[in-house]
Design a protein that fits this description.
Layout (H helix, E strand, L loop, with lengths): L2 E9 L5 E8 L4 E5 L6 H16 L7 H9 L8 H22 L3 H5 L7 E9 L2 H14 L3 E6 L29 E4 L1 H19 L4 E5 L6 H11 L6 E3 L9 H6 L6 E3 L10 H5 L5 E2 L3 H4 L2 H13 L3 E2 L9 H13 L6 E2 L5 H7 E2 L2 E4 L2 E4 L8 E2 L1 H4 L11 E4 L4 E2 L2
Parallel strand pairs: 4-5, 4-12, 5-7, 6-17, 7-8, 8-9, 9-10, 10-11
Antiparallel strand pairs: 1-2, 2-3, 4-15, 13-16, 14-15, 17-18
Bound molecules: (2S,3R,4R)-2,3,4,5-tetrahydroxy-N-oxo-pentanamide and cobalt (II) ion (CO).
Length: 405
């Protein structure tokens, strides 16, 4: 089966998504997600200008060789743009192989290790009360696990909500340039334990709770913060410090028993090496879209399993339904799957463009048996949603110093 064409689509049905389509001479096509929030056009150019010319006429069944060719063969390895581009191609090739075999991708990975995929949702309030009412409504929807975030008093414009609730800090900004927010570590670390104290008071310990620090602390600040959160028995504390220096996590894990998660921005197995080999984390957040696709994620999951690290893939609204489906096929297979982040799909606009094999039922995602990844993409409909340049906010300290996001 030969690759005859590769197209790249960039659309904004609520969020910007980069979609790769590979066509073959047997009429089977595959879809991949290559979305890189805030840097989408770099990936579009990478696939169109640099990858496409090399793959036309090549054998669509050679997934592993194609992955190695794009990774080792270009000399410049790794990096988020390169790996998102490779992910788009890799997912599309798995989709093609599944369709050719009339099997869902999880069957090609080794079959199901579980029936359904446990997920966690997000409660993000402007104050503790609002976060608690969001937690309540997620619980009523069936969620068994919820990540709690809350605007910190005295810094309402940051790390919670930006005023109007549509502009929650993780969403792309509708402004033409990145909004800037002020960060204050002292206010943050003094406030968040109160949020969890209230949640355990009201909801008890029958629901799993999580929290994302978004890399904003130093290792020793993070260790102290984690110790303070220990009584609230979080499922995990995410990204307490940046992970470029992996040994920062040694300091944290030597001081606290709180389970730590990291890795949503990692794009190579090498980014995980010390964290996993030293068992400094309990959960790995890597996801197919930013890690180079399904081919490397299978290896990453197996490597993590050797060290009792479980997979908890990144599942933000800036991963397309194709990326979510790729994660789901990996999750249903991986013996060491833990939990999937899932905040729902982006409403009618997104559902008009993408159909997907996932359904939320009582705190779990189910995955249909459609061949391949099970996603479809309406190219005509997608034209109604042109790309809009958008950025995540940036953080600064009160004196203007640029801080980790
Ligand atoms: O802020 O994907 O745990 N989830 C997250 C995400 C990230 C966004 C950045 O593009 O931290 O929602
Ligand atoms: Co995160």
């Amino acid at each position: 089966m030969k690759i005859t064409d590769i197209s790249v689509f960039i659309n904004c049905p609520n969020r910007n998504f980069v979609t790769v389509k590979i066509e073959t001479d047997e009429g089977i096509y595959g879809l991949g997600d290559a979305t890189l929030n805030g840097r989408e056009m770099a990936v579009v150019a990478y696939v169109k200008e640099h990858i496409k010319p090399c793959l036309i006429g090549k054998n669509a069944h050679k997934i592993e060789d194609t992955w190695q060719y794009l990774y080792k063969g270009c000399y410049w390895r790794r990096g988020p743009v390169t790996m998102a581009a490779i992910a788009g191609i890799d997912m599309a090739l798995w989709d093609i192989k599944g369709k050719a075999a009339s099997l869902p991708v999880y069957q090609l990975l080794g079959g199901k290790s579980r029936d359904k995929i446990k997920v966690y949702g997000h409660a993000n309030g402007k104050d503790i009360q609002e976060t608690m009412s969001q937690l309540q409504s997620l619980k009523e929807k069936g969620y068994k696990a919820v990540r709690l975030q809350c605007a910190v008093p005295g810094m309402e414009s940051t790390y919670g909500i930006l005023g109007d609730k549509k502009d929650y800090y993780e969403l792309q900004s509708s402004r033409s340039l990145p909004p800037e927010q002020i960060w204050d570590t002292t206010k943050y670390v003094n406030f968040i334990p109160k949020l969890f104290d209230e949640a355990r008071d009201i909801f008890g310990f029958g629901i799993e709770l999580l929290h994302d620090v978004h890399n904003r602390l130093t290792p020793r600040e993070a260790a102290g913060f984690a110790k303070e959160l220990e009584p609230y028995k979080l499922l995990f504390l995410e990204d307490p410090v940046p992970a470029e220096n992996q040994s920062s996590y040694k300091i944290i894990s030597e001081h606290t028993t709180i389970p730590i998660a990291a890795g949503e921005t990692f794009n190579s197995i090498w980014d995980t090496k010390e964290l996993i080999e030293n068992q400094w984390i309990e959960y790995l957040r890597m996801a197919a879209t930013h890690a180079g696709g399904i081919t490397p994620m299978k290896k990453v999951a197996d490597f993590a399993a050797v060290h009792q690290v479980r997979m908890a893939p990144h599942g933000p609204p800036d991963i397309s339904p194709i990326g979510h489906a790729a994660n789901a096929h990996l999750n249903i297979w991986a013996p060491n799957f833990g939990i999937q982040e899932f905040v729902g799909f982006g409403g009618d606009d997104m559902n008009a463009v993408f159909s997907h094999p996932l359904a939320f039922e009582d705190g779990y995602l189910t995955l249909s048996d459609k061949p391949g990844l099970g996603v479809d993409f309406d190219e005509q409909k997608a034209k109604e949603y042109p790309y809009k340049r958008a950025y995540l906010p940036v953080s600064r300290l009160g004196d203007g110093t640029l801080w980790d996001w």
